[in-house]
Predict the 3D structure of the following.
Amino acid sequence: MSIPYISGLFSSDLAIDLGTANTLVYAKGRGIVVAEPSIVAINKATNQVEAVGRDAKEMLGRTPGHIVAIRPMKDGVIANFEVTEKMLQHFIRKAHNGKSWVNTRVVIGIPTDITQVERHAVEDSAYRAKASEVYIVEEAVAAAIGAGLRITEPYGNIVVDIGGGTTDIAVISLGGIVCRSAVRVAGDAMDEAITQHIKNKHKLLIGERTAEAIKITLGSAFPLEEPVEMDVRGRNFIEGVPRTVTITDAEIREALDSSVEAIISAVHVTLERTPPQLSADIIERGIILTGGGALLKGLDKRLSVETGLPVSLAEAPLSSVVLGAGKMLSDFELLKRVKCESKLAADGNINVM
């Protein structure tokens, strides 16, 4: 699914979806201006940045010894503070057409279950990247807004945001999160499950990019109407030589089943905690899926069968978080309300699996 780009007048205000797999930047009045992988290539000899984003992803598994491609975000939080700061500086400068002197107000979406220390790390990275004001909001709330849900009304809405590192599930009413769950199983865990399956069954070693391509082409959570297969190239770790094997959607579906079950279990936990009156709203309104992981074929159908509820995919699942955060740039009252909720989140009803 394509990510929308909108042209318009320049503004220094930015919304950022700082994801484990991808970082998206929305500029007020212009729309999404950056959508690139959250990867930085560093020269270990000089400690200089060689590439960021899409260019750095092309280097994964292909770099010489003195250059390392780093994913500075893990499970939706900062794993490498210094590299995250450099990545943010690069993307903010790119959003401002190379200008580094612009005073920027930034709204950043973060996972539901991270700690206060991790929240402060995100905030500090943004300030060090020359942001003048930083507002931290929960990704589940931003995703709900970006998906078009009217979260300030007295009705229950449930959103399941499946990113690269985490899956956030939240029931939202009157602008706040009523109950929530989070599981650190999402797109990256699915890629790893595919990598391990290919290694165990076919004795083949594959890279991250190949695993992702398999997930996109063959991955599913529910049996497909027409079977699909794919030739996969890698290195046979017994013989040590390149090999090609043919794999099917059925075996990849089996490999992904534990990840899918973990997400469904987290949804069940959230539904069990939902107050009865809001449960009635959810029966009528259903579940909204957002995030790149929501694009897994048949996931909406599988979740609907498992919960007995209608399930629908957001119009722009890949960009729901950043679009929701972007809307807050034009609605400061909503931003203050949601930001307040985020500060209280560490004491809220979170279940991390």
